[in-house]
Specification:
It is a single chain. This protein is of the alpha/beta class. It folds into 3 domains: about 70 residues, Arc Repressor Mutant, subunit A; about 190 residues, Vaccinia Virus protein VP39 (Rossmann fold); about 120 residues. The protein has 15 helices and 19 strands. The strands form 3 sheets. It has a 9-stranded mixed sheet, with helices on both faces. An 8-stranded mixed sheet has the order 12-14-15-13-16-19-18-17. Strand 18 and strand 19 form a beta hairpin.
């Protein structure tokens, strides 16, 4: 950790060049010979990334940033804040501390937090930044987290883990055993030190596969930010053997959409119907959850088709996702397409439909954008249809 980077002139230069092309800046001569030019450029690039994602870090003076990749991989402040609502108690240990954003928020819900990070340089940076941020109840430990867990020799209210996929893990299938640390192999160690474990994984992890790999899963939180699923949170409690609750969270600028249900509950049987006045498309967190029948039953909506995952109603209701008014429903045929959509401008979505958006645009010369929203889908009678809508 090069503290020369905190020189007031260098800090002023960094702030002045937020958002400036790094490729352009790299061609300039280094005006600060006491610091490597690439170190300065990295601070500019990483701080630019932090502007929207980490506003508390961005606005705080004398913050030191790690690599741009570390900033890209860390939790956003909004998702970290959500995680802090799950935990409570006196003591939490984070076995994969990273840049420390999650622990910053955990420290507001838990009395003392231990930040473990195998990269000694990053651990120093995080400790420095916590001082700048005025955080006093987080202790930073550099080195292997399993060894730290054993050496501290105490019972924790929570263990938090954000395992990273190993570089040598091949193929598209994402398994927890392919990550470091391997959570399935270390569960006995973790439960020896805590009765509650919170695991963060990438959205790529299949929920059913994760349940098979883990034990004592009580709740799975699917967290989306602006309708983009960012992370899955697995809440494990020692000796828990009950049903698993799925919580879907979509954090938007002006509100947060939530929908909860019991996983693998076969009691939900939705109704099916042809398109009515309104169309509903679930947000990405619900889509990831697989709770397609559950959301239909809860909101008393009719599904268009078992595999379409679009819903309809005669009367307008509030719903966690996009809502449209159906202005016209047409069969997917040459004559109908020529009459209503060919050479028009529209936003296109396909659900349970044999053709791609790209091919549909090319075939019917439909430009992207505008106020028209078209859903190419299949109805309950297995007919291919197009729903022409306006967004509500």
């Amino acid at each position: 950790m090069d503290l020369h980077i905190l020189n007031s002139d260098i800090q002023e230069f960094i702030d002045h060049n937020i958002g400036v092309s790094i490729a352009k800046l790299a061609l300039q001569k280094n005006p600060f010979p006491e610091v490597e030019w690439m170190v300065v450029l990295n601070q500019i690039e990483a701080k630019t990334k932090a502007k929207d994602k980490l506003p508390n870090w961005f606005k705080t003076k004398k913050i030191i940033y790690p690599s741009k990749i570390s900033i890209e991989q860390t939790s956003s402040e909004k998702t970290a804040h959500y995680k802090s609502t799950i935990v409570s108690g006196a003591k939490l240990i984070d076995l994969t501390g990273g840049f420390g954003v999650d622990d910053f928020y955990f420290s507001k819900s838990v009395s003392t937090v231990a930040h473990c990070e195998i990269n000694a340089e990053l651990s120093k940076i995080v400790a420095h930044n916590y001082d700048q941020l005025g955080i006093e109840n987080i202790s930073c430990y550099a080195g292997d987290s399993a060894a730290t867990l054993e050496s501290l020799y105490q019972k924790w209210d929570w263990i938090y883990i954000d395992p990273s996929r190993r570089n040598d893990a091949k193929g598209k299938v994402f398994m927890l055993k392919d990550c470091l640390p391997s959570v399935p192999d270390n569960l006995d160690l973790y439960f020896k030190n805590s009765d509650a474990i919170l695991i963060k994984t990438a959205p790529l992890l299949d929920i059913a596969a994760g349940v098979l790999e883990l034990q004592n899963v009580k709740t799975i939180h699917i967290v989306a930010l602006e309708n983009d699923v960012k992370e899955l949170l697995w809440e494990l409690h020692k000796d828990y053997q009950g049903k698993i609750e799925i919580k879907t969270i979509n954090i938007l600028k002006d509100k947060t959409e939530t929908f909860d249900f019991i996983w693998s509950d076969q009691s939900q049987t939705p109704n099916y119907d042809l398109p009515q006045s309104y169309l509903y498309e679930p947000n990405s967190a619900i889509m990831k959850s697989g709770g397609f029948d559950e959301v239909a039953t809860f909101y008393a909506l009719n599904k268009l088709h078992k595999h379409s995952h679009l819903y309809t109603s005669a009367n307008l209701i509030s719903f966690p996702g996009r809502i449209f008014e159906i202005t016209r429903c047409i069969p997917y045929s040459k004559n109908e397409m020529k009459t209503y959509l060919q050479d028009k401008k529209a936003n296109i979505t396909t659900r349970n439909f044999p053709d791609t958006v790209e091919n549909i645009r090319k075939k019917w010369k439909i430009k992207d954008g505008g106020n028209l929203y078209c859903f190419f889908t299949t109805d309950e009678n297995n007919n291919k249809i197009v729903l022409i809508c306006t967004k509500i």
